[in-house]
């Protein structure tokens, strides 16, 4: 590490050793485990400083192990750790298959911690503490960290470098971007990262950390081009157009490096920056797509199909 700042976030991955050796820490049932980090650095005032951080955890063991692990599971932090780990393996292991590795890890987790009857996929369920984790893995499989096609090696290296230093909240935004909907019917509200979120009378704001996208539905775009926002009596429409820009300005102001701002309309060429991040629940193969919505031209499976396959494999 060349430097540390207030936002630097580091990830340490430990293996539980099965062999007993001179450097092995003995695992005692129910006892406390202590980890100590010693950081020696030069402060910006020129002083050399030594900081020691001690963390205590308890070994989970016995019959209560599974429930203890579920109770202590942080799915957002876990998604950030898995993303860093798969990025590291892609850089250091020559024949590494990231999709296969992620799928196997997710199946093992669901098999061990899921609640189901053997060979009955419809009975499968996950604890609320684990329920969003498969969605994180679905989006990670489709992210720029795993799908490096269409990105230069420099871009891929930059994306991974930022992933490995940012905190959990920012890492989750990189893996699974946030999507906010603006409409006349309601104030700003978060919506699912799905193709069904697109509507002709809505504005969507996508924050994927590296880019911020303001997407206007086709009706909103036509009204804007007609200049309704400048006419008397249409102040509510002017405010609706302004709200996502105010939010994007706030995001850009506090983030470094500055994300790319994309302002686009439905069916426009720049709309691809949003469509590429959405769950393709409505594709060119779909029957009866919603009127006024959008169709994603892809052969990728939707999240629903992904979960169906996961449940079938987890209960075997």
TrEMBL record:
Q: Sec23/Sec24 beta-sandwich domain spans which residues? A: 1-60
Localized where? Cytoplasmic vesicle, COPII-coated vesicle membrane; Endoplasmic reticulum membrane
CC annotations in GO: COPII vesicle coat; endoplasmic reticulum exit site; endoplasmic reticulum membrane
**Every Sec23/Sec24 helical domain range:** 74-171
Primary localization class, coarse = membrane
One GO BP? COPII-coated vesicle cargo loading
Where do the Gelsolin-like domain residues begin and end? Answer: 188-274
Membrane topology term: Peripheral membrane protein
Which molecular function term from Gene Ontology is one that the record holds?
Answer: GTPase activator activity
- Superkingdom of source: Eukaryota
For this UniProt record, give its keywords in alphabetical order, as a comma-separated list.
Answer: Cytoplasm, Cytoplasmic vesicle, Endoplasmic reticulum, ER-Golgi transport, Membrane, Metal-binding, Protein transport, Transport, Zinc
CDD domains, alphabetized: Sec23_C (cd11287)
Family classification: Belongs to the SEC23/SEC24 family. SEC23 subfamily.
Q: What does this protein do?
A: Component of the coat protein complex II (COPII) which promotes the formation of transport vesicles from the endoplasmic reticulum (ER). The coat has two main functions, the physical deformation of the endoplasmic reticulum membrane into vesicles and the selection of cargo molecules.
UniProt protein name: Protein transport protein SEC23
């Amino acid at each position: 590490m060349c430097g540390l700042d207030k936002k630097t976030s580091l990830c340490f991955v430990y293996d539980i050793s099965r062999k007993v050796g001179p450097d092995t820490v003995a695992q005692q049932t129910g006892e406390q485990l202590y980890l100590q980090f010693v950081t020696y650095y030069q402060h910006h005032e020129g002083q050399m400083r030594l900081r020691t951080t001690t963390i205590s955890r308890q070994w989970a063991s016995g019959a209560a192990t599974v429930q203890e692990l579920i109770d202590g599971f942080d799915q957002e932090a876990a998604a950030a750790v898995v993303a860093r780990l798969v990025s590291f393996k892609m850089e250091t292991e020559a024949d590494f298959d990231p999709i296969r590795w992620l799928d196997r890890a997710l199946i093992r987790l669901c098999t061990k911690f899921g609640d189901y009857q053997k060979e009955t996929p419809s009975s499968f369920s996950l604890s609320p503490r684990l329920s969003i984790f498969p969605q994180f893995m679905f989006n990670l499989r489709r992210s720029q960290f795993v799908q490096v096609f269409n990105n230069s090696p420099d871009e891929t290296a930059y994306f991974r470098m930022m992933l490995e230093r940012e905190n959990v909240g920012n890492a989750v935004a990189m893996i699974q971007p946030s999507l906010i909907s603006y409409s006349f019917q309601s104030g700003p509200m978060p919506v699912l990262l799905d193709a069904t979120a697109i509507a002709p009378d809505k504005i969507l704001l996508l924050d994927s950390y590296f880019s911020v996208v303001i997407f206007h539905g086709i009706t909103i775009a036509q009204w804007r081009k007609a200049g309704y926002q400048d006419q008397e009596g249409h102040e509510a429409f002017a405010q609706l157009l302004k709200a996502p820009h105010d939010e994007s300005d706030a995001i850009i102001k506090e983030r470094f490096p500055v994300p790319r701002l994309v302002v686009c309309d439905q069916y426009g060429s720049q709309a691809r920056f949003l469509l590429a991040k959405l769950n393709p629940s409505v594709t060119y193969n779909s029957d009866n797509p919603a009127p006024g919505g959008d169709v994603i031209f892809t052969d990728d499976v939707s999240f629903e199909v992904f979960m169906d396959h996961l449940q079938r494999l987890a209960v075997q």
